[in-house]
Write a structure and sequence with these properties.
The protein is of the alpha/beta class. It has two domains: 12-124, Rossmann fold; 127-180, no CATH class. Helices cover 21% and strands 31% of the residues. It has four helices and ten strands, in the order ββααβαβαββββββ.
Length: 182
Amino acid sequence: MPVSMSHTSVPRWATGERVPDVPSHAARIVIVVPSRDHIPCGADDSAAMTTDASPAAAILGAITDRVAGEVTVASPAQLPDLLETAVVGWHFVLLGDDATVTTARARLLAAGAIDAEITVVVTDSGARRVFCTHCRTVTTADIGIGDTVPCAGCDAPLAVYYHFSRRLGAYMGYRVDSEELP
């Protein structure tokens, strides 16, 4: 039985093909990217920003041109420190692969952010986080929805299902051969 995408919790975020709408009135824009080494930031790097061909760099440059408030570029590892000082009026832009943005988004929601304060742009759909419903381990793999991946915890062959947990930032995975087990 095929799954209707209109009745699934699979997120439909913007891709790196267009610049997302970011509120220009935000007090501070925090752009979270997988690695700050690949994304130039700051006034001294403006020339490098325009020559870097990566989708994240192009989006970063377009966002900084549109907003009046302070723009901070951070890695996912820096989020806990930033969240300690976050106040109302901040807006978070998450750029990166599916696994990176879903993890960062789950962390933001757990800290009290709401959907209106988060913009997600998937620049590379590659890696996904899959939650094993049997041993509760999260496996990260370059996998498509509907495909099978071995669980990193119990080694069960997991089917990546059309259900996404906002709290965990992961897709549900269930054992494909559970009905065949003794």
